[in-house]
Structures are given as structure tokens and as C-alpha cells.
Amino acid sequence: MNTGEVTRHIHHALASVGLLFALVPWSVHGQVDAQLTPPVAQGGTDVPYPADATGVADVVLDVTVDEHGGVSQVEVIEGAAPFAEQARSAALAWQFIPAQRAGVPVAAKIRARVEFRPPAAPSPAASPLGVSPTAAATPVPPVAAVPAAAAALDVTIRGHRNEIGQTTLSAGEVRALPGAFGDPFRAIEALPGVTPAVSGFPYFYVRGAPPNNNGYFIDGIRVPLLFHVGLGQSVIHPGLIERIDFFPTNAPASFGRVAGGLIAGQTREPASTWHGEANLRLVDAGALIEVPFAGDRGSVLVAGRYGYPGPILGAITSDVKLDYWDYQARASWRAGERDTLSLFAFGSHDYLAAATVSTSMGAGAPRSSLVEQFVSDFHRIDLRYDHALQDGLVRVAASAGYDRQGAAPTYLSDRSAAVRIELDQKAAPNLRLRAGADARFDDYDFEQRVPQRFEPDVPSSANPAPINLSGGVHADLVWRVGPRLTLVPGARVDMFQSTRTRMPGANDKHTSTLPAFDPRVSARVTIAPAVIAVSSVGLSHQYPVLRVGDVPPPVVNGAGFPFGRRQLQSAFQASQGFELALPAEIVVTATGFFSQWWGLTDLTASCLQIMPPIVPPNTTGEPRPEADYMCPSNQPVTGRAYGFELLARRALTQRLSGILSYTLSRSTRKAHFVTLDGGDAEATVASEFDRTHVLSGALSYDLGAGWRAGGRLVFYTGSPYSELAGNVPVPPYNNRRTPAFIRLDVRLEKRWHIGANGSIALVLEGQNVTLSREVTSLGLDCMGELSPAGGTNQCTHGKVGPITIPSLGVEATF
């Protein structure tokens, strides 16, 4: 050995680090995923031997590699000081080519073993101290650093694996999507099966299910909404979101009491190094900062956003007033090698008022007045305890919340509490068990003040407000039957209870209790290396929806059993899809679906189609059945939806990337209609927001030198409506269509990188730069004097928009 080699070993004293980043496509469930490629190390992964240490030691690390290839967290699984801290510190600086699923970069957790061996003793001939060659008769052979790809050690990739039938969007991917304004939740609109109620408002039909049947979750915590009204920004800072999981139907059994689509946001794990984000735009400002403490055992995060769109809106129109803000705070503490405590608090506020035009109130009435359209406040606090098993996780969590939503003159508040316990455990090499239980308590309170002159006076089925108690148990198995087949059978058993008084302020309480059994099964079959078949079928139940007011779109609602009716909303959902991996990292998914509902309450059937109650008050003194109010959306109906979806994706992190989605569908209801004589007619018709064709296509191109440009085209056909006699629909019902709608979104970004992880970006973005207006059936423009029968002489569908606000802002990460 020459002097240079000895010196290198003495001064660097490198440990042997074994990391096998070969193509081992195993997921956390122990199943082969042909579309998953693990992270690949870039540069060296050697770890210096601690200067004050002696002996041999092995350290096992769990290393979280984000979708950009950086290491966001390192957890010591095995190892003692000072070797454990040395390995953890060095691993934070490693760089990787990120893991990919179907060509899309994803975050992944890998397990690495660092083997510390003491540095080799120098040979006598090369001793800088002039030691005689005979001083070491048996010199210790030198130990060279083993290249990362050469060590034959096992690696467990613990990246997130898509559930069967699930679409996942990473935060890094959707931040480049034109028209999404950098918000992961906004990108849901670009997926197939999603039909917006109105362009620019993030309230969607999902495979025919109305917006009030969709479920929204943050880290398993149910929330009333995920988006701010108007601009549609998410209620969680984008820097806190790791990914968005979208289940159009048949979500995993852990998600219950949802009979429509489900959108679940998953926050990032606490970071082991401090970092932050900030953005300043024409309409809002936001910031996030996270600081670890006590080494990497603890972490504190605060984030929030405040909207001030008034000046921009004022320059466009004086008919809208809009405000919003949100906040998030999280603290976590690693109590031991396997135990973690965390506290997460977040909340949101929205206010929207819009001008209404009226000439029906007689001479001298003002032609326009700002009327409150939507008010929403919600707050959540969640305390959880996680215990890592040998190959699994146990979570116990409790949360509390307060919601208040509505529009003048009616509001509904909800004080809630929930608990849940979850187990995710590998039971056998090819079998993983997921099970748990959850319960929720909701105490609603109804508020209705005397309506002002131009405020709508609509009936509400949420008065008196109910008290609900629901709970259930769930389990499913992820069973790898063979190399080409994975089955996921599962089920939920739930109990729904609702207690209400007969009259406001009365003491006579009426309680309704109904059980529900929700079986489901999904399958993934690898037909060929690049072709996968995905199947899903299941049954789900949900509380009936109680109308609070007539918010357009009507998303404010309560849950409980209406008087005189004990029937849950029930949904049978089935889908069959095929995933095809094409060259150039393009993935195409084609899916056919069918859904059937019973007892459906669809609040998008607006009560503004009728005037206040025609039927005289009930002489018994009890609240009248909802049918007496002649409000179509208050009556349970049966319905179905079926169609075909196509999705083609190339990761938005590629130089030329894009996403194309198309939905061909039909959604029908056996609905109720008010007749000219005040009666009730029933007919099977196309549902309120059935759109035959929905198309969304986005392209983004990396121009180089930090420039990236993109655009998105959104097109959908019109929704059905009926001819009107005054404000009363006449048969044949829903046989006409509103005009089709098309809009264009654009995005231009220039980014400057600062240091290893920092950057500053200037972003110019615009939604609906074509200034397109949309004809909607959410409300009617009624003109003329009131008739004796309570109708009007002429009603036409209203127009929305153009909903368009340019966004020019600066984003910084550090």
C-alpha cells in the first residue's frame, strides 16, 4: 500500500456503506409493482467513521427520499451512539434519482444498512513515523469503501402504493399544472369522472354523485370542504401537502360513511431539517415554516394564507365580495425509536357575497344588492399516537371540531368529536391486514334570522337541528395471491343514529338508528408487463342530507334523518379499468364504471325554482314532511350513472409533460318536479349536472434556464333543464341542454435556484383567460311582477362569470 492510500484511510476513515438500489419493485405491502422503480443514489453514499469511536457497528436507517431526489427525513431503526448520529447526519446529504411509479416521480422510504468498520492500520513500510517494517508482523489489511451498487444488502422500499382504483397526484407534480394555482387539490378537476358544478368553483360531481355526497379528508380527519370558495384555493398550505389521493368510487374500508367520491389529502412527515416557503400574489399571501428541535426528535410547523382579492375583483366587477384565510399548526415528538406523538390544528374561513337583480318587488326597488351567498368557518384539532411495529403501524387518534356554514338568513353549526384506531400489519409474506374502528359525534345547531328584503326565504329540513352519533369497524386484506394477481377484500359495519326534537325548543326527542354493512372487493391483474387490469365493486352508505339554505352551489348541509323517513343513502359502485404503460413514460388508463343509488338527496336541484310553500301549514302543529315544501332536492330519489373514462399522463416533472382526461357519461334520476297546479310529478330524467362530454388537456414544457410554460383547455357540454312556465318546469322534463362551455388556462414560471434546496420563482398564471361565461341551472333570473299563484311571468337560466382572476406572484422556498 502506498503512502497516499494509507493517508486517505487514516484521514477519511470511511465506513463501508451498503445500499442496494437495484430494480427491486417491492412496496410496503410486500407486493410486486411493475410500474415502481426505486430511488437510485447519485454521488457518494460513504459515511466517515466517527473520530472518537472504536470497534465494529451496524446502523439501520429509514431514509425518506422525496419526489425531487432529496432526503427529507432519516430515522434510526437500529444502532448506538456515536455511530447512529454519524450515519443519520451523513444520510441527510445524500442525493438520489427519485423513485418513480409509471414514470411519475414519487416519494419513497428506503431502508439502508451502514456498516462501520475501523480504519485500516498503516503498513510499516509506509509509516510516516519511520516505523521499522518488522514492527507489524501481521498487518491488518485495509478496508476500502464499497461502492453503493456493489453491496448485496436487502432494501425495503416503503413508498406510498396506490390503492386499486385510486389516482394519486404528488404535490410537486400538480404545482406545475396550469390553472391549478399551485394547489394540489385544485388539480382534481383535471381528472376523468370529475364534473364541475360551475367552472371556477371546486364543487364536483364524481361519477354522477352530487357534491354533497363526496367525502373530504386531511390525514384521516373529515372536513366539510377542501377548497376556498371563488378562487378555489385549498384550505391547507400546498407546502404541507405530500400527495392527494382520489377515489372516484370504493375507497378503502378505513374511509366510511361516504356514498360518492372521496378526496384525501396526506400531509408531509415532519422534516429533520428546518425549511420554509413563502408566496406573495395579487390576491393572497401565504407562508410555511418548519423547525426541528432536540436533534430530529421534535418538529414544529406553522403555516397559513390570507386572501385579499377585493382590489382585483373591484377592478373587474362591483357585484362580488370575497374574503378567505386559513391556518395550520403541527407539533410532533418522537418519544422513542418506535413511538411518535403529534398535535395538528388547522382551520379555514370563507365569505362570498354577490349582487342580485330584481324588478319583481315593485316600483322603486333597487335593481341590485349584495346578498350573502356563502359563509364558512371550520376548525379542527387532532391528537394522535403512532407506534411502529416490526412491519406495520398502530395509530390511535382523537379529534375535535367546530363548523359554521350557511348563507343569509340561515346557518348551521356543528360541534364534533371523533376517535379512531387503525392497524396496518404484515400478517404473512403475501398478506397484509388493515383494520380499525372509529366513532363520531355531531351536535348541530340551526340559526335562522328574519330575512332581509332581497334575501331568499327557503325552507330548511335541518330545523330543528339533529344530534348524530355514528361508529363502525372495518377491515380489509391486501392479498398477493400470485405474481400477477392482488386481491383486496374488505368490509365495514356502521351504525347511524340521529336524534331530533319534533319542534324547535320542544323536549320530545325522536331517535332513529339504522345499521349498514358495506362489503367491497378490488383486484389488480398483471396481464402483461405493461398491461394491468383493475377491478372494483362495493356497497356504501351515508346519512341523508338535510338542506340548510339555498347556497349556489348548495354545499352547506347537515346530516341526519328527516322527519317521517328512516332511509340511508345507499350506493352500489363498480368499475373495470386497464392501465397501459407506453414508451416515453406515458401511462394510459381506460375505465368503465356503473353506479346505482337509492335514497339519494341531491342538493343541486335548486329550491329557487319555486316560491315559498304553497301548501297550508300542517294543522297538527308538527313540522310538515319535506314533500309539502315542493323542493325537489329534499326528496329522496333513485338514480344511476354509467360511462367511460380515459386518462393519459406523462409526469409534469418531465421536460415535456401533460395530462389528458376525457369522460363520456350519463347520469339519471327518478326525480320529483313541481307542477303548475302545485302538485308533484315524478319522472326519470338526466340529472341536474349530467354532462355527456367532459374534456381536459394540459401541456407543460421546460424551456430551459428555469423557464417553464404551459396551458390547459377545459371543455364540457351543457347540463339539462326543462322548459318553464313562469318559474315552474313543464314536461318533458330536462330534455334541453344549456350551451357548452370552454375555457383556457395558462401558466408561465421563471425559477432561480439558490443553494442546495432554495429557490425563488416568478409565476404568472390565469384561469379562464378567454373570459368565458357559463350558463348554469343553479339559479334563475326571474323578471316581472309576482302573480297571485306565487309565480313570475318569466324565468331564465342565469349566467356565471366570467370567473377569471389573473395571478402574478413570487414564490420562495428555503
Task: Summarize the structure in words.
The chain is mainly beta. The protein has two domains: 3-135, TonB (TolA/TonB C-terminal domain), CATH 3.30.2420.10; 167-495 and 502-511 and 518-813, Maltoporin, Chain A. The protein is built from four helices and 48 strands. The strands form ten sheets. It has a 22-stranded antiparallel β-barrel. Strands 4-1-10-5-6 form a five-stranded antiparallel beta sheet, with helices on one face. Strands 11-16-17-14-15 form a five-stranded mixed beta sheet. β29 and β30 (531-542) form a beta hairpin. Mean pLDDT is 77; it is low at 1-34, 121-159, 357-367, 607-630 and 784-793.
What layout of secondary structure does this protein have?
Blueprint: H1 3-12, E1 14-18, E2 36-37, E3 40-42, E4 47-48, E5 57-65, E6 71-78, H2 83-91, E7 95-97, E8 99-101, E9 104-106, E10 108-116, E11 167-170, H3 171-174, E12 194-198, E13 201-206, E14 215-218, E15 221-223, E16 241-247, E17 262-267, E18 275-281, E19 284-293, E20 298-307, H4 310-316, E21 320-334, E22 339-357, E23 368-389, E24 392-407, E25 410-428, E26 431-448, E27 467-482, E28 485-501, E29 509-528, E30 531-542, E31 545-547, E32 557-559, E33 569-582, E34 586-600, E35 637-650, E36 656-674, E37 680-686, E38 693-704, E39 707-716, E40 720-721, E41 723-725, E42 728-730, E43 736-737, E44 741-754, E45 758-766, E46 774-783, E47 794-800, E48 806-813
Parallel strand pairs: 14-17
Antiparallel strand pairs: 1-4, 1-10, 2-8, 3-7, 5-6, 5-10, 8-9, 11-16, 12-13, 14-15, 16-17, 18-19, 18-48, 19-20, 20-21, 21-22, 22-23, 23-24, 24-25, 25-26, 26-27, 27-28, 28-29, 29-30, 30-33, 31-32, 33-34, 34-35, 35-36, 36-37, 36-38, 38-39, 39-44, 40-43, 41-42, 44-45, 45-48, 46-47
